Each structure stands twice: as C-alpha cells, then as structure tokens.
From TrEMBL:
It comes from Homoserinimonas hongtaonis. Residues 9-79 form the HTH luxR-type domain. One of its GO terms (biological process) is regulation of DNA-templated transcription. PROSITE patterns: HTH_LUXR_2 (PS50043). The keyword Signal does not apply. SMART domains: HTH_LUXR. Keywords: DNA-binding, Transcription, Transcription regulation. This is LuxR family transcriptional regulator.
Length: 79
C-alpha cells in the first residue's frame, strides 16, 4: 500500500481519516469495493460509507459528467 502520511494541503487529502486514506489508496490501485472490504476486513457497506465520506471531504459532488472515484484517486496520487 502507498504511504499516506504526507499530503498536499490543497488536495483535500489532509482532511481524510487514516482509514479513509487506506480506502483511497486501494481505490488508486484499482481495487473494487469487494476487494477493499477483504483487504481491510470491512463490510462492503462500510467501504461504501468510507467512499461517500471521502467524496464529501474532497468536495466532489455527484455530477453526470465526472467519475468521482477516478478524480479522488488522481488527487491521492498527485499529493
């Protein structure tokens, strides 16, 4: 898993909890919700809740033309 200890202050990543950063790191690796749940020993519902909170913290509203999961992963990788 990628190191999630240093963050760019403009990306919003610093607002995420440690667990949310772990989930986002796995999203950035291309993992599905089911794979993330297995890796972190969570339920898929918990993963979905973490992802929703990640979108909120990163200020990524649902819009028809954007894929929030990809945008969040790009922000994580660009930090």
């Amino acid at each position: 898993m990628a190191d999630a200890t240093t963050f760019d202050s403009d990306s919003g990543i610093e607002r995420l909890t440690r667990r949310q950063r772990e989930v986002l790191a796995l999203i950035a690796q291309g993992r599905t919700n089911a794979a993330i749940a297995r890796e972190l020993v969570l339920t898929e519902k918990s993963v979905v809740n973490h992802i929703s909170r990640i979108f909120d913290a990163l200020n990524l509203p649902m819009v028809p033309d954007d894929h929030r999961r990809v945008i969040a992963a790009i922000r994580y990788l660009a930090r």
